[in-house]
């Protein structure tokens, strides 16, 4: 796994200079917003051995990250429908049948699937029951909120869709070698879940999923360190007290608040160390919390972003 990661040592994340940064401020030019996109984190080659004829042939994949798992297992051609977070190039032609986590039952049934893959976040229950009532097998696979849960999630998806054992072993091996990265000085990182169009501003804590990624990449999640719940409403008092050195956000969330400048206007953010150097990392929404085949590479890219931000 680490050998595969080596190819993206510093290309695994791309720096983006905000146009509003003053040209005479050398600190802000050196420590700048960093973007980690789909293009920065290479997807593994799919398992190539043919599947048994008994496997599911028309799969609608709606569980978080399950589409990318199925692609890695070698089942891209079996996916006929997907959720809006699954954007693997192999299945972009498969129609999206959700809005957020909301399933459109009629759109699913129109695809005549022989399997629907969901997780605990999928809903509404009425839509799921309607699909079951139409005779479509529905399998709920476990969610993964940290790196330790990934293999169980992959195996459950593989068994549900009838993937070869060799394919399941191949994909689980992609993440089993993921290592903890240490830094000379572990940056204090705050994960912010932002949906500005809905006025949702949350601070991540224990169990957010990002806490596992931050720790694995060599940082300290300040929300988890303070024993906050998975997602706590962002307040000026809390973020000022935690005083993170780095802000971790998802790309669409950052866009929803008007980019870096809009982020710095949120309650208390301007008073943090991270704001003083614009130390912000924006990770593609489909990468940060997908916990699938590319998670190890995403951790490595995040580690390199930390290295860049804390460099003297």
- Mean pLDDT level: 88
Q: Please give the largest β-sheet.
A: 8 strands, mixed
Silhouette: globular
The low-confidence runs, each spanning 5 or more residues with pLDDT under 50, are 1-31
How far is it from the N-terminal to the C-terminal residue, by CA? Answer: 29 Å
By secondary-structure content and strand pairing, the structural class works out as: alpha/beta
Helix content: 25-40%
Radius of gyration: 20 Å
Q: Quickly count the helices.
A: 15
% residues in beta strands: 15-25%
Run of helices and strands: HEHEEHEEEHEHEHHEEHEHEHEHHHEHH
Count the beta strands: 14
Overview features:
312 residues; four-stranded parallel β-sheet; globular; disordered N terminus; 14 strands; eight-stranded mixed β-sheet; 16% strand; 15 helices; alpha/beta
Characterization of this structure:
With 312 residues, the protein is of the alpha/beta class. The radius of gyration is 20 Å and the shape is globular. It starts with a helix and ends with a helix. Helix 6 runs antiparallel to helix 7. The strands form three sheets. Strands 1, 2, 9, 10, 11, 12, 13 and 14 form an eight-stranded mixed sheet that branches. Strands 4-3-7-8 form a four-stranded parallel sheet, sandwiched between helices. Strands 5-6 form a two-stranded antiparallel ribbon.
């Amino acid at each position: 796994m680490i050998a595969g990661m080596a190819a993206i040592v510093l290309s695994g994340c791309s720096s983006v200079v905000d146009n509003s940064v003053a040209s005479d401020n050398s600190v802000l030019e050196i420590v700048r917003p960093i973007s980690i996109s789909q293009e920065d984190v290479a997807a593994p080659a799919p398992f190539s051995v043919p599947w048994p004829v008994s496997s599911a042939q028309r799969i609608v994949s709606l569980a978080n990250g399950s589409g990318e798992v199925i692609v890695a297992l070698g089942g891209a051609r079996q996916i006929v429908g997907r959720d809006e977070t699954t954007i693997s190039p192999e299945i972009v032609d498969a129609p999206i049948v959700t809005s957020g986590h909301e399933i459109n039952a009629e759109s699913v049934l129109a695809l005549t699937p022989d399997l629907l893959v969901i997780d605990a976040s999928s809903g509404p229950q009425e839509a799921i029951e309607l699909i079951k009532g139409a005779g479509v097998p529905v399998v709920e696979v476990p969610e993964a909120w940290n790196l330790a849960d990934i293999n169980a999630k992959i195996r459950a998806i593989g068994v549900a869709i009838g993937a070869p054992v060799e394919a399941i072993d191949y994909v689980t091996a992609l993440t089993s070698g993921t290592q903890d990265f240490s830094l000379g000085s572990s940056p204090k990182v705050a994960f912010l879940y932002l949906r500005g169009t809905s006025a949702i501003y949350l601070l991540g804590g224990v169990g957010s999923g990002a806490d596992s990624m931050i720790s694995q990449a060599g940082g300290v999640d300040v929300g988890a360190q303070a024993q906050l719940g998975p997602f706590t409403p962002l307040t000026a008092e809390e973020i000022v007290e935690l005083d993170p050195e780095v802000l971790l956000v998802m790309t669409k969330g950052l866009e929803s608040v008007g980019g870096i400048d809009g982020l710095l206007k949120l309650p208390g953010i301007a008073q943090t160390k991270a704001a003083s150097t614009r130390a912000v990392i924006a990770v593609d929404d489909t990468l940060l919390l997908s916990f699938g085949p590319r998670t190890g590479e995403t951790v490595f890219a995040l580690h390199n972003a930390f290295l860049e931000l804390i460099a003297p």
